[in-house]
Amino acid sequence: MKEKYVPRTLPRGRIAQWSREQIAALTTPELRQLLANAKRLNETELATMCDQLLTDRPNGHPRAPRARKPAAAAEDSE
Known about the structure:
Layout: H1 20-24, H2 28-40, H3 44-56, H4 71-76
């Protein structure tokens, strides 16, 4: 009888593998992706560190979307 293959799972809490210097060296898009992954995987320490680094960068967090004027209001002003 063949043995059943069981994939090895990685341990939780891989934050120990990331230093602040390594994370700071990432580009802004890479840092945003790391933040999204950390939130998805419930790695709160890593997510907090990424969020702090993005806040310190000039264009770290994208701007909030502006409210658009309704098309009817734009036509009335002409």
